[in-house]
Amino acid sequence: MNCVWLLLLYRVTFKRVIKKKSTEEFSCIPYIVALLNCLLFTWYGLPVVSCKWENFPLVTVNGVGILFELSYVLIYFCFSSPKGKVKVAITAIPVLIVFCAIAIASAFAFPDHRHRKLLVGSVGLGVSIAMYSSPLVAMKKVIQSKSVEFMPLPLSFCSFLASSLWLTYGILIRDIFVAGPSVVGTPLGILQLVLHCKYWKRKNNMEQQKGDTIEKLDLEKGTLANNGDLVGKGYLENSNNNLTNLTNLSNCNSS
């Protein structure tokens, strides 16, 4: 359930993408890798690979994950630049081909469940480690910019919680392919939380400074507008005085 909640939290990112109609500095690679991860572990949990329904939780969670991740990739594709669309296609098509090849090989090339689990689980383990390692790019950006803008706290917290729960579940069922990725994911989740603790105050200060700058600009605009009104009024008064003087001078000449 926590993993479904983690997937739902990606909506925050894509709500921003849809609102701004731009993918900004977000990368498509984590979502494509996550899609491959969900595909592999859904296949791993099916009776074709596993013995009967011993890994049914993997099928339910990752099956929902396929729908979400596929939606995210499509949204990213729609709102990315032409260059970004090419990058999505170049990355996603080979990923789908790899999954199809592994699924066909595991179904027809191996006679028993043990060898099938070994093949699919080994590839899934590598992909999961890559998926959990993908936030390293975001963490590098956080350290360089000293801002957590592109690494939301709810997403980091749920990532840590999800990896911790999968680690516990994998240990309980004694499945290295389920527990293995979380051995990497849990420490990375902790590191993300540490970065949030370090840089969240700086983020608040930057937002406050930004607000103060906008307020100062508004005040300066108001002052300029008031000065402009005063100048305009002075110009009108001078014009009226000059007109009055000319009229009086004309009357005197006529007399």
Automatic annotation (TrEMBL):
The keyword Membrane applies. Gene3D superfamilies: 1.20.1280.290. It is found in: Endomembrane system. Coiled coil: none annotated. Keywords: Membrane, Repeat, Sugar transport, Transmembrane, Transmembrane helix, Transport. It is a multi-pass membrane protein. The chain crosses the membrane at residues 28-46, 58-79, 88-111, 117-138, 150-172, 178-200. The keyword Acyltransferase does not apply. Mediates both low-affinity uptake and efflux of sugar across the membrane. Belongs to the SWEET sugar transporter family. This is Bidirectional sugar transporter SWEET. It comes from Stylosanthes scabra. The lineage of its organism: Eukaryota, Viridiplantae, Streptophyta, Embryophyta, Tracheophyta.
